[in-house]
Amino acid sequence: MSEQRKLYVRSFGCQMNVYDAQRMTDTLAREGYVETDSPDDADLVILNTCHIREKAAEKVYSELGRLRKAQEEAGRQQMVAVAGCVAQAEGAEIIKRARAVDLVVGPQSYHKLPELLAEAEARRSGKAGARAKLVETEFPVEDKFDFLAPPTREAIGKRGPTAFVTVQEGCDKFCTFCVVPYTRGAEVSRPLAKILDEVIRLADGGVREITLIGQNVNAYHGLDAAGRPANLAELVRRVADVPGIARVRYTTSHPRDMDEELIAAHRDMPALMPYLHLPVQSGSNRILAAMNRKHDRELFFEIVARVREARPDIAFSSDFIVGFPGESDEDFADTMDLVERVGFASAFSFKYSPRPGTPAAGMEGQLPEDVKSARIYALQALLDRQKAAFDEACRGRRFDILLEKPGRFPGQLIGRSPYLQSVVVEAPREAIGTLARVEVREVSTKSLSGDILGGEFFAGRPIGETRFIGQSEKLEA
Ligand code: 5AD
Ligand code: SF4
Questions:
Q1: Binding site membership of 171 for ligand 2 (Cβ less than 6 Å)
Q2: Is 173 in the pocket of ligand 2 (CB under 6 A)?
Q3: Residues 445-472: tens digit of each pLDDT
Q4: What's the pTM value of the predicted model, to 2 decimals?
Q5: 378 pLDDT exceeds 70?
Q6: Of 135, 146, 154, 155, nearest to 94 (Cα)?
Q7: Cα dihedral sign for 281, 285, 290, 294?
Q8: How many CB atoms lie under 10 A from the CB of residue 66?
């Protein structure tokens, strides 16, 4: 191991970038890098970028400009790497435009970071003094996951009782608005056994909740030990069976890939949380077809009904795009109507933003900004009302929360409900990582708060001894 150096990683965008940042950090830990939370004292800065929506690339360039200025002011020698989807999409352009950058590395090459950095360093200290640059944006044939280092026990402990695990990457759906098939490449599933090894390791380090992630996670079809493809339902079952794992989630799904087995898993597996993020994007069949979504509104309604039948207490979340090229007032009214009919516990909504190289960017009927703004305003107001109504309906309900971290005030912890709501309770720090039975008392726009009735940490202890309000109650299985 070489001398200790400091690493600062800044991640933008989705959960997969959060996961990638952790794996890059774990891999570089083996090279002697320790994490720091400020770019100012870092020897290496990695910007882990996102390209899904507007101005992502511009944001990266201005961040790089700021970095360069700070470097100059402080007379600092610092390596800078740009990773993630902007790195993939822009490639050498980044090196041309941003002088601070030593290395551009696409998402499929993270396992090569140690050697790429060593090479970039060598070039940088080359005789001519010129900062020759490196760009690595190939889609290599080897599986990067075989080369990325797993987290140490200490790193797992620091990251808390919930963890993301990438199980599938890339997408073959080619929605006409989306850059993912170009930046993350074709759909690839990791083998079942490798995912389970990772989950066992995480569980051993104290993780209780696993979120299986992938751009198209329910298209998962990784090979099992016998060389047969396993689906997501099977993977969820196997992950839930790992000792210590109490909860499983998965995201993001495509409506087309919600198969019977996965729906049945929601009925049969208490560890699978009753919360489903299922992007629909639009409520208009005309727009869904132009988006190449491969489903219509009727299929979406049918899936929602089937999942609700299997798991009546399930809550839905979704993604919406307004102002797709050619979207008329009627099309938008169809989206509002779909939202009214389904009822969402939460949702993300975006104004359409043309992504270079995608089919929709060249379509006729691009809409002016003011139309997009008016539509997103109306849609978000409706979604906010639905979220508020869902949260309000939780008042007085009892459910298990997973205690994750200290709250704002001494004596408080924050946990997550099955529906991903933040729940504030009074509990000692030692209870972090345990499930607590809670009755929801107050509801605000940001979080819920509640009284602990019992739970893993409190089992067998008189509640009075641990300063809790409420009475002990046996945790339901
Ligand atoms: N414009 C606006 N939103 C987009 N999304 C993906 N591509 C675009 C785009 N070009 C949204 C979709 C997707 C989410 C991750 O980002 O709603 O589900
Ligand atoms: Fe993009 Fe569509 Fe694939 Fe989702 S399903 S990642 S929106 S192309």
A1: yes
A2: yes
A3: 899 999 999 999 987 654 444 433 333 3
A4: 0.90
A5: yes
A6: 135
A7: positive
A8: 12
